[in-house]
Request: fold
Amino acid sequence: MPKALVFGANGFVGPWLVREMEAHEWEICCSDRASDSKEGLGSSYWQADLLDADAVSRVVTEVKPNAIVNLAAISSVSQSWRAPKTTIEVNVLGSMNVLEAAKSQGTCPKVLFVGSSEEYAPSKEALAEESPLAGNNPYGISKRTMCELANLYEVAGDVRVCCTRSFNHTGPGQAPSFVIPSWCSQVANIERSSHEGTIRVGNLSVCRDFSDVRDIVRGYRMLLESNCSGETFNFGSGIATSLKDILEIVIGFTSQNVSYDVKPSFIRPTDQPCVLADISKAKRELGWEPEIPLSRTLHDVYKSFLGA
Reply:
């Protein structure tokens, strides 16, 4: 049975990835900076701050994994603007610590680094892996730097590296600081109140490529199980949906009258009008494609806040 070590396992994606990989006969060991693991992560848990190189090396040495997944990151664009230095430290230097720990094993483990669509330059076309890169916020720049660094280790032959550029994904368990959980949480609160209400929103004119986290982690697992290394894969839905349409679907879940208030402070000055993934490479080389429709994802997130 292959063994994988997941850093950042206590985050939103971690528990979903653990379920996916355990269902496909992987032995999973988890690590995060918190002293205790989230429910559902099992008993194989190590506490380690990604910025503590010695702690990261110790975990990798003890676990001796065949594969390592780094989910630990500052993963919010808005948070990256508030804390750019921390974003670079965690996303770049933390990833370097993982690479160094993997290299020291001498067994050439496969390491998966999760990048972002924020690495791409703005485009009116669907974004493919060869599309121009830029990064117009600290988060996007940190992820681009992380993947370039990882590829250096791949070229040197010290580790086998795969990177993703994952587009927006959501699902039950994501924090309300992200747009879809925020709206679902607010609408669920109005439903429970049995009164009409108003929710706060940002820019509704933009279109985004949203996927279900369960589809995304399936892609990560398939990438780890493939023979691919030294490559980058997009994971997304291949469909751009306007935030206004998403909001209308979410409001439709409640029996109460809901209005919305656009808050200028919620609007980013560098928002791209449309972000769309070209996922043809993942379809062609991995046999992966999304299966869960956005309507189901939205309803599942809403139910998670409603307590249903």
Notes: The radius of gyration is 19 Å.
